[in-house]
Design goal:
Strand order of the largest sheet: 10-9-13-7-8-12-11
Number of domains: 2
Helix content: 10-25%
Shape: globular
Largest sheet: 7 strands, antiparallel
Structural class: mainly beta
CATH topology of the largest domain: Elongation Factor Tu (Ef-tu), domain 3
Radius of gyration: 16 Å
CATH class of the largest domain: Mainly Beta
Number of strands: 13
Number of helices: 4
């Protein structure tokens, strides 16, 4: 994962495809408008993981994937030709349409159910119990880099409503029950926890 501080919003800007992987490196295709804004040494979020660009092609980029990143996120499990969510970092003056996301994955969760409901979809996700304190009803959580609103926090799972635009514009349309997903919990909840500890 990227070592410097980049900020994202959880609003996916495009879909890429894993073209090649090997020896701790991945090559991912990306839409032309995103290619124009990328530079070697810059940051990009891939399924919610902040990576550093080490090489650029006409329609793709390359990034290193450390052993730690591969083991602590889903990036070590993605297959060739699998679609991934992409987002470039915020620039000064950019609107914050989702919520603050750093690209530092906290845990890998699991999709327990994903089904059509009304005009949208409902996603039920499980997560490690030690992260319950960072979830709030109608708060914020990033799932594979997608800013979503959790509700019905119950028994180690939470639900998120997925609108058609999010479903069509992300890799959620290829997700199924049992799939692992990257989870990043709300950074504001972590800051509050830290301040409370200091006061105590």
């Amino acid at each position: 994962m990227h070592s410097s501080l980049s900020m994202f919003t959880g609003i996916v800007q495009g879909l890429g495809v894993l073209r090649r992987r090997g020896s701790g490196e991945v090559e991912i295709s990306l839409p032309p408008p995103m290619r124009e804004r990328l530079a070697i040494g810059g940051s990009i979020a891939v399924n919610g993981v902040c990576l550093t660009v080490i090489g650029l092609g006409e329609r793709s980029f390359r990034s290193d994937i450390s052993a730690e990143t591969a083991s602590r996120t889903t990036l070590g499990r993605i297959r060739t030709e699998e679609a991934v969510n992409l987002e470039l970092p915020l620039s000064l003056g950019s609107p914050l349409d989702g919520h603050i996301v750093l690209g530092h994955v906290d845990a890998v969760g699991r999709i327990e159910a994903f089904y059509r409901e009304g005009e949208g979809w409902t996603l039920i996700c499980s997560y490690p119990p030690e992260y319950r304190r960072y979830l709030a009803e109608k708060g914020a959580v990033a799932i594979d880099g997608i800013s979503l609103t959790p509700y019905q926090l119950d028994g180690g799972t939470f639900r998120c409503a997925v609108i058609p635009a999010t479903y069509e514009g992300t890799n959620l349309k290829a997700r199924h029950s049992g799939d692992p997903v990257n989870l990043e919990f709300d950074i504001m909840a972590k800051y509050v926890e830290g301040m409370v500890r200091v006061v105590r």
